[in-house]
Hints:
Elements: H1 5-21, H2 26-50, E1 54-57, E2 64-70, E3 81-84, H3 90-97, E4 116-122, E5 127-131, E6 134-137, E7 168-170, E8 175-177, E9 184-187, E10 192-196, H4 206-209, E11 212-213, E12 217-227
Antiparallel strand pairs: 1-2, 2-12, 3-4, 3-12, 4-10, 5-6, 5-9, 7-8, 10-11
Helix pairs in contact: 1-2
Amino acid sequence: MRIPACFAGGFFSFWCYIHGMKALHRKDQWIIGGIALALIAGGCATAAIRQGRLTLNASPCVPVGVYQIIPIKKPLHDGEWVRFCPPLAPSVRQEVRHHWMDLSASSICADHLVPFIKHVVAVPGQTVTLSAEGMAVDGLHLSPPAGPAKGLHPAKGHLIPHTAVQFTAPTLNQHVHLIHYPFGTYTVKPGTFWEVATGTKWAFDSRYYGPIPNSAILSGARPIWTWKETP
């Protein structure tokens, strides 16, 4: 059995570490030991990222951290994490135009867009209702409009938390009107899915560009090491 290079180097370093530690005090042993193990783990993680087995997500739209790249399950189920190429929708082009999205010359997605990692919330056959108040999936009860407001008013208990649609984004000299997907109720069509991100109120997801074709999926994703950013 072939041992990965990072592990082989790690074992050699660990052997040297054991023999060299005998001459140090216990406190120093713990400090140096922690540093050595961190370097070994970091080297292995770097190797895994380069080989495409792990990916780093730096966007606060979903938990920031390291995700494992896994085969996608078929059929797709709500609740799964997926990694996919963003659609070339008007809202996406707006994000690019204002430099709100990262681009990469090495990306396999169209127009150098960097792949998204999002949470699947609706698959074919399910119903999605999108309104200014947010997104809801299945079992939605609509309440009548209050006052002069028009459109859909979903019962608050059925909304996915933190999915209120943002209409404007502050920039240096002005407020930009954000493009969102038309409000309404949609039955998810075969070969598509809806996804969501609730990490921040500015999270960018299907609320703004609608359903995603399954053909855009690159892989599944599994959070390995994530952390929350301090506000």
